[in-house]
Write a structure and sequence with these properties.
Blueprint lengths: L6 E7 L5 E10 L2 E10 L4 E10 L2 E8 L4 H14 L8 H6 L2
Antiparallel strand pairs: 1-2, 2-3, 3-4, 4-5
């Protein structure tokens, strides 16, 4: 089951009355994973942007069709469940301390 205490959800209004959803997950070291619903002016279509941010600047981005968002989320949950990622510990940090 996903832990939600590190996740913030904000709904903002754009000047053309189109609501935009925004959510961010604190990852550590000043990094955030931001998930937002954006609109392309060039193609006049909406898309979901998943980005890695630090100090308010987007460092990397991934754009996803809104119709695939739920499928991705369910696949991530299934992957976490199958690999017991709720109890994941970074094994490389254990070997570094030895």
């Amino acid at each position: 089951m996903a832990k939600t205490e590190k996740m913030e959800e904000v709904v903002a209004d754009i000047d053309d009355d189109t609501p935009t959803a925004y959510s961010e997950i604190k990852m550590g070291g000043g990094w955030y994973m931001a998930i937002s619903l954006e609109r392309s002016e060039r193609f006049d279509k909406e898309y979901v942007e998943i980005s890695k941010e630090r100090a308010g600047k987007k460092r990397s981005r991934f754009n996803l069709s809104p119709k695939h968002t739920r499928v991705l989320g369910e696949a991530l949950i299934r992957f976490a469940d199958e690999n017991d990622l709720d109890n994941f510990e970074n094994k490389s940090s254990d070997s570094d301390s030895e």
